[in-house]
Amino acid sequence: MQSDGYTIHVQSPSGEHEIRIHPDDRDRLLTQILAEHGFTLRMPCGQEGRCEKCRVSLTAGCVIDHFNDEAICATDSVVPLLACQHRPGDQPFALDIPVHSLAWAEPDVLDAFDVQALSVHDPIWPDKNAPGQSRIAQPIGAAIDLGTTTVTLMLVDLEDGEVLSRASDVNHQVRFGEDVLTRINLCGTDRANVNVLRDAVGKETIGPLLHRAADDAGIDIKQIVCLTVAGNTTMLHLLIGEDPSPMGVVPFTPAFVEHKQVSPDAVGLDGLLHPEVVFHLMPSAAAYVGADLTVGVVSSGMLFESGTSLLVDIGTNGEMVLKHGDKLLGCATAAGPAFEGAGLLYGQRAGGGAINHIHLAGDPLTVGIDVIHNIEPTGICGSAYIDLLAEGVVVGLLTHTGRFAETAPAGLHKRIKHYEKRGRCFLVTDTVSVSELDIAKLLQAKAAIAAGIETMLSHTEMKASEIDRLYLAGGFGAGLNIHHAIACGLLPGFRPEQVKVVGNTSLAGAFQVLMNRGKLEKVIEVAQSIDTIELNLDPAFEGRYIDHLSIGMHE
Question: CA 240 from chain center: how many Å?
Answer without folding.
Answer: 20
